[in-house]
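Input/output pair, single chain:
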Amino acid sequence: MKKRMTAILLTAMMTVSVLAGCGSGQKAENGTNAESYTIGISQFAQHGSLDNCREGFLEGLKEEGIEEGKNLEVIYKNAEAAFANAGTIADGFVSDKVDMICAIATPSAQTAYNAAMDSNIPVIYTAVTDTAAAELTDADGKPVGEVTGTSDMLPVEEQLQMIRRMLPDAKTIGIMYTTSEANSVSAIETYKELAGDYGFTIETAGITETADIPLAADGLLTKVDCLTNLTDNTVVNSLTTILEKANELNIPVFGSEIEQVKIGCLAAQGLDYVELGKQTGRMAAQVLKGEKKASEINSAIIEGSDLYLNTAVAEKLGITVPDELTEAARETFTEITEAKAE
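Output:
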């Protein structure tokens, strides 16, 4: 009887030992006892600024000891600028029971939180312009649930100041935007509130899908002296089409971040999206390590903006860039690069 009882106890102890080596406490590949994690990344569209956010997010995690290939598995999916796809991706991540969803851009953040709110899966977002309008926080930036992240709130006043210095005689600025994107609607209102202070009026063209862009661009370009671009994902996805049409009419287009300037916008007073992503990654690490819950971390806005110029575009359009702007630019590009392939 004693021998039988001893065998049962040994078997139980072995079972507990095996189970202890599984799940979230599983030993990472690098041989440490650190936990390993699975993060589902839902990116709304493929373009430079969002790609930079994703790169920065992984760098921020790495700074905190969470590194892909060692103690982190990343499942990356792109919604190709379609809301329905973003919802499907989010539902899939919840079904797979990932440890966290990283949502890049407002539509992905909204669908991810809606899918995960009844689970134990936290959502960390980045590149969400107006978190309150997106119903991810209250007006003070406090999370509405287990969801938090970083905002890419546009430096609208600095952009208007820059455009006025660059185009002293311009009167009307055109903006194209997606009517269903909360961040774009919010940015439009800010532009309208501030434009008069710099002697501008704002002309807008709303679209609902990519197919609307060529016709909307044709109509808008007949009414304006220049265009300024938001971080609107559907519009940014088709920026090369807009630039081609604007160039034919010799109308300058201003961007909202560095990647847009690289591919043909004249200038931008914008954010560093890699740094935005890094900040998001560091916040995510706090949640994964159990230091804080997502609901305990207020949404953050990256401080400051930088000026980016493209002198090749200026020369092509016959625009002289004031010395004060040339000297203030963080980066100046002397050629136009092709947009990254989809």
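The first strand starts at residue 37 and ends at 43. The chain has a mean pLDDT of 89.
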